[in-house]
Amino acid sequence: MELLQFTSSPLLHGSSKFINSPEFYKSKLSNLKKPPTTTFRCCNHPNKTSHFANSKAFENVTKNLVIRASKSAELETAVIKKPQSQRFQVSKGYPTPFGATLRDGGVNFSIFSSNAVSATLCLITLSDLQENKVTEEIALDSFANKTGDVWHVFLKGDFKDMLYGYKFDGKFSPQEGHYFDPTKIVLDPYAKAVISRAQFGVLGPDENCWPQMACLVPTPEDEFDWEGDLPLKYPQRDLIIYEVHVRGFTRHESSKSEHPDEKNSIIGLQSKGISAGHLILCRTSHFVPLVKEIKHLPPPNPQNDSSTSILFFDLSLRKDLGINCLELMPCHEFNELEYFSYNSVLGDYKVNFWGYSTINYFSPMIRYSSAGIRNCGHDAINEFKLLVKEAHKRGIEVVMDVVFNHTVEGNDKGPILSFRGVDNSVYYMLAPKGEFYNYSGCGNTFNCNHPVVRQFIVDCLRYWVTEMHVDGFRFDLASIMTRGSSLWDSVNVYGIPIEGDLLTTGTPLRSPPLIDLISNDPILRGVKLIAEAWDTGGLYQVGIFPHWGIWSEWNGKYRDIVRQFIKGTDGFAGAFAECLCGSPNLYQGVPMISMGDEYGHTKGGNNNTYCHDNDVNLCTLLISGTLLTHECESLGLSDFPTADRLQWHGHAPGLPDWSDKSRFVAFTLIDSVKGEIYVAFNASHLPVIISLPKRPGYRWEPLVDTSKPEPFDFLSSDLPAKEIAIKQYAPFLDANLYPMLSYSSIILLLSPDENA
Questions:
Q1: Secondary structure of the chain: what % helix, strand, coil (to 5)?
Q2: What does the alpha-carbon distance between residue 649 and residue 638 come to, in Å, rounded to a whole number?
Q3: Which of 166, 41, 155, 143 is nearest to 107 (CA)?
């Protein structure tokens, strides 16, 4: 028990006996027209006070107090009744670190909530969770179990198959930004795994899309053998990035998975040990698609009981296509059934396929694990670690696509799952009357530059680097992270007032505290940091994102211009040429291949297939190929090409057409390896015969022609019929001509002319 002092209020003044009955307070409070304001002062924290200005909050506090009158009747002394449990030894705990943490032979639970008036720790066994039951509730005392704005408790006992969550009470006043509901069990933002449904796309009990979720409790057995794994630390300029969606890459039947439970999982990302020279992307649908080579690793465990596995890449993924970095589309916990509804057009069901709707930022997507909820999520965490470890063994870095711009809780009509029920007005960007700012286009905006929230984001990123060994992050709608937080105050953020600082909520900041914190963090500044430098509120920062010298950006201008030209839009020939050679405006970037680009996957013109769990989003072909940047030095320059090595052409050599109607761009590049290469793009709906630059003593030979059927679209050195294919071009090449079909591109190499 701990002693507490508080100053006397009219309600208690003159008391000279034990007052231990809640009915006493109820009777006194009922006689007051206005609830009294009572100030409590802790003996061990004499400068810390708590104010309660409503009868419900006051009653909750006084239930646990035994009050004694002092001789002067001016100072009362209280004894706190500590939380009790039938299963665990309970003590007050520690305010840091946040989350559930192993220490001193037990588990410390700590969570921030500045506006809640009471907190309850809910302990739930895995079996009770599936029956929507709470195993045990431990009410936290607002004095013994609270330090500042942090609630905490320490437990010792048997946590086998045990999960947890919280209940918070306080105001439910949306117009003031508060959504406290003591009937809701909410998730700890710092939880390391979130458990609910076991299988991807399978409804919960009673066809519930949102069954109760709960958080993983750490155990001493949570160990993983990294086998000395260390970060690869490739220079960013040397990366070839492959953007991949776990389920989309692993679910199709062409994945050749040994076990059906690997489909849609991390295990599905494992590699096959096949000969170099062939890229075989083995696809199931889970996490353990681990970069696995059969001759080095055993096959997956047939006892796996999940419906989704991680990703298989073979060694030649790097050797042939040159890929040395995977960019995983969202792998944080999300609910794929968020949009669940019947699609009468396609005859299937809409789901949240892409996953840009985060529930928890520390938890890997459990249903991307072949282990599913087995072992309360511990095995799923290890599956993700295995993916990273095996990728590193094969020289492949892993970058995560993270969504710190909004959460799944949406606007005021959204569910209360975690952040909203813990402290809504802190975690979300709100207008003065509680409305949600919507710079994300998804209903809410994460309050990134609030001191508590920005520290949360940094803690999360550090966890994925230090515990999960990822090599970097791509930040979705990163411009939101540069906007001023709710109730912006330069003194609160910087410690001093700033002259002329009249910034309002959401205003773009020249020196955003969050970006500053990440950029100067001793752990994070050494990993890849990639910004999607815009948001849906109109903030577009491509080329001007506050990068602190270490951030890079998605080149949206490049993407948009290339799309416009390739699909045949007038007026983009000059801009497309600028994209090809780079410029100070567009800059020269790191190549990134989207999943399916390697075989020309099409989505039929739909550029927002977020809700389609079908062939539109599934990688469907096995492919082999070679990355030309390894063979052609000129396609991987570290600086902008100059006229000394670059020459532009049109249908005739040296005569480029930059008019608005032009749909043809061609150029030659001096190459230290190949001598010279010729590249041309015909974005017209009409075919054309082009004249090639004359090079005495040499002749042009085809390497790539996208209009030809596979395998003759790429005449690699190991193609058996290569010589026969080249002879078919001879009548044109002998005349220094080449026929190009509509919507096609070619690459020609300069070779010595043996007949010259």
A1: 20, 25, 55
A2: 23
A3: 155
pLDDT of residue 634: 64
Q: Return all residues near 741 (Cβ < 8 A) that are at least 6 apart.
A: 682, 687, 707
Catalytic residue among 379, 476, 631, 676: 476
Angle between helices 451-466 and 419-427 (to 10 degrees): 120
Element (DSSP H or E) covering residue 732: helix 722-733
- What is the b/e burial string over 414-437, where b = at least 16 CB atoms within 10 angstroms of the residue's CB? bebbbbbbbbbbbbbbbeeebebb
| Contacts by 545-554, CB closer than 8 A, 24 or more apart | 545/478, 545/479, 545/482, 546/482, 546/510, 546/511, 546/512, 546/515, 547/519, 548/515, 548/516, 548/519, 548/520, 549/519, 550/519, 550/525, 551/515, 551/519, 552/236, 552/528, 552/589, 552/590, 554/474, 554/530
How many CB atoms sit inside 10 A of residue 738's CB?
A: 20
Q: What is the pLDDT of residue 583?
A: 73
* Mean pLDDT in residue range 115-131: 97
Phi first, then psi: what are they for 319, rounded to 5°? -70, -40
Mean pLDDT throughout 451-470? 98
Query: 308 and 368 in contact (C-beta within 8 Å)?
Result: yes
Cα three-residue angle 699-702-707, rounded to 5 degrees = 145
Residues 6 or more apart whose Cβ sits within 8 Å of residue 582: 588, 589, 640, 641
pLDDT of 512 higher than 50 = yes
Distance, C-alpha 42 to centroid of its chain: 42
3-state SS track over 473-513: EEECCHHHHHECCCCCCHHHHHCCCCCCCCCCCCCECCCCH
- pLDDT recorded at residue 645: 86
- The per-residue pLDDT for range 725-750, each reduced to its tens digit, is 888 889 999 999 999 999 999 999 98
671 catalytically annotated: no
* Whether 597 is catalytic: no
B/e letters for 76-110, b = 16+ CB within 10 Å, e = fewer, are: bebebeebebeebebbbbbbeebbbbeeeebbbbb
Q: pLDDT-derived band of residue 632, with 50, 70 and 90 as boundaries? A: low
Amino acid letter for position 134: V
pLDDT score of 537: 96
| pLDDT at residue 271 greater than cutoff 90 | no
Rounded distance between C-alpha atoms, residue 266 and residue 595, angstroms = 16
532, 613, 631, 676: the catalytic one is 532
Percent of the chain residues topping a pLDDT of 70 = 75
Sequence-distant (≥ 6) Cβ neighbours of residue 660 within 8 angstroms: 570, 571
